[in-house]
Design goal:
2 domains, 16% strand, Rossmann fold, 10 strands, alpha/beta, 309 residues, four-stranded parallel sheet
């Protein structure tokens, strides 16, 4: 394992300041009148996903409390949060260990390794639940070696979005947003952003997006009704609606975004945009902001999903 050089933690690396303040892009798609649908371009964060925000907040909290770099940061991830930890940790001299499900795309594993993270592969059939179980086992076996960040219950996850994503969306829309749509994984994006927007305007509708069944191809998302370990961060009373989107619909929408809008995003963003388009069919006057979770370049090893069917 590559040794990580410890550095001074008195000043955050410049790279950390590049996280956030992503643009809000108006989408002009059939089914969405111009000026009614916006995509928050989270793939333009330096690590390529919305998870940069939570990872930075979790690392910042751990540094403040002296937990890292004295210990290695340990967590379970389907890929994006792990990549963010690895990238930001490398810049700050923090060692990172990620428990990664075996069904994570090869691009995600490769990025983790390039940033110097230690990768522990877990059973692909157990998904993120199995990865989280393995992370807990490692933390319990070697408490002096690992700081278990646990993104599914760490309040810094949702707080990152209360502090940054929510205020950005409110400012960028001039307070005109009527609906906020986000895919549900750890649920930190929805919990933090949604609670902030509700405080600014209680009439704003919050729409969570999940797969339509426990067997799905949307990496990082949870079918909350059937998961054995629902995220501790999740408050089911916060979203006004939870939309269920089939994997095939998410894939088709991601392909549309690439070919009709020049925007290459992943399947979770495809699912969220699909839910937003469904909403606009019912409420054409809505002003909808959707989280564009990550870049589609992380899924190019799945060519069959990019082909028209």
């Amino acid at each position: 394992m590559t040794a990580v050089r410890q550095r001074s933690t008195t000043r955050e690396p410049d790279l950390w300041r590049a996280v956030g303040n992503t643009p809000l892009l108006a989408l002009d798609l059939p089914g969405a009148e111009r000026g009614r649908l916006w995509l928050k371009a989270e793939w333009l964060n330096p690590g390529g996903s919305v998870k940069d925000r939570a990872a930075r907040a979790i690392l910042r909290d751990a540094l403040r409390r002296g937990l890292v770099p004295a210990k290695r940061l340990l967590d379970a991830s389907s890929g994006n949060t792990g990549i963010a930890y690895a990238m930001l940790g490398a810049a700050a001299g923090v060692g990172v260990t990620i428990c990664l499900p075996g069904n994570a795309s090869p691009e995600r594993r490769a990025l983790l390794e390039r940033y110097g993270a230690e990768v522990v592969t877990t059973d692909r059939l157990e998904g993120t639940d199995g990865a989280a179980r393995r992370a807990r086992e490692l933390a319990e076996a070697e408490p002096d070696r690992y700081y278990y960040a646990d993104q599914y219950s760490n309040p810094a996850n949702s707080q990152a979005h209360r502090d940054t994503t929510g205020p950005e969306i409110w400012r960028q829309t001039g307070g005109r947003v009527t609906h906020f749509v986000a895919a549900l994984g750890t649920t930190g994006t929805m919990m933090g952003t949604g609670s902030y927007l509700k405080e600014k305007n209680p009439a704003i509708q919050l729409v969570g997006v999940q797969p339509d069944s426990p067997l799905h191809g949307l990496e990082g998302l949870k079918h909350l009704a059937t998961t054995r370990n629902p995220p501790a961060l999740y408050d089911p009373d916060l979203p006004d609606l939870v939309a269920e989107i089939p994997t095939e619909t998410a894939d088709r929408t991601a392909r549309r975004l690439a070919r009709e809008a020049g925007i290459l995003v992943g399947w979770s963003a495809g699912a969220a945009v699909a839910a937003a388009l469904d909403l606009l069919r019912l409420e054409p006057e809505a002003a909808v902001v959707v989280i564009g979770c990550d870049t589609g370049t992380r899924y190019l090893s799945e060519p069959h999903r990019w082909e028209e069917r």
